[in-house]
Each structure stands twice: as structure tokens, then as C-alpha cells.
Amino acid sequence: MMFVTGALIWANLNERIEHTIQQCTFDEGATFRDVYSTCKYFGWPYEGLMTFRWGLDPPEKVATPPNSGHFTFFYTKIAVDVMIYIWILIAVWFVCEFLIPRRAARKGA
Questions:
Q1: Model pTM?
Q2: What is the pLDDT of residues 50-98, one digit of tens each?
């Protein structure tokens, strides 16, 4: 059951979808700078958390300003995710606790 729980946690903490969009270009002195926004979604099987950040230039080149982040929680999707996790863990518990010892007893081990 620990492996299944670890897999569920891993599935939730991995970034599922990322969108980087160039919003606009503005003139900063003699150079043009691009404004980018990045949306990342987390959660499995439904995305329960969205992070939104904006910054100048592509995000991999310039650090994102610290106050540019925004988190959005989708509480209904989180509740559905939790119900799915509970059903998955109940199914794994059933297999571990009932079917494995029953089969071993039938074989005479």
C-alpha cells in the first residue's frame, strides 16, 4: 500500500500541463522586452491546482519576479480526486488483505 500511496503522491506533485504564452512586447529604452505568462496545472486524475506566473523574456532566461505568482485551487476537482484515491487504496487493501492470504491457504502454503 505504501507503493501505491507514493505513486499517488508522485502523480499529484508532477506538473501535468504547462502553457507559456507571449503576452506582449514593449520598448524598454533601446531594447524590446517580451512579457510571458506561464500556467502550470497539478493533480491527478483531475487538475486541482493551477499556478500562474508572469515575467520578462522567456521564463528560462530571466528569473520570475517574486510577487508575480498566483495559485488557484479547484476544490470540486480536489474532492473528486480524494474520493478516487480512497477507492484506489480500498481496492489495493482488499487485494492485499483478502485475496493473497486466501489464495495461499488454498494452495496449502
A1: 0.67
A2: 887 776 655 455 454 555 677 889 999 999 999 999 999 999 998 888 8
- Write out the H or E segment, with its range, that includes residue 47: none
CB distance 54 to 68 below 8 Å? yes
**Whole-number Å distance between alpha carbons of 48 and 21:** 21
Structural contact between residues 20 and 48, judged by C-beta atoms closer than 8 angstroms: no
Q: pLDDT per residue over 4-30, tens digit each?
A: 999 999 988 888 767 666 656 555 555
Cell numbers placing 96: 492485499
Residue found under cell 488454498: 106
Domain ranges of the chain: 2-107
* One-letter amino acid of 25: T
CB 16 within 8 Å of CB 47: yes
Taking the C-alpha atoms of residue 86 and residue 23, their distance in angstroms, rounded to an integer, is 41
C-alpha span between 60 and 105 (Å, rounded): 58
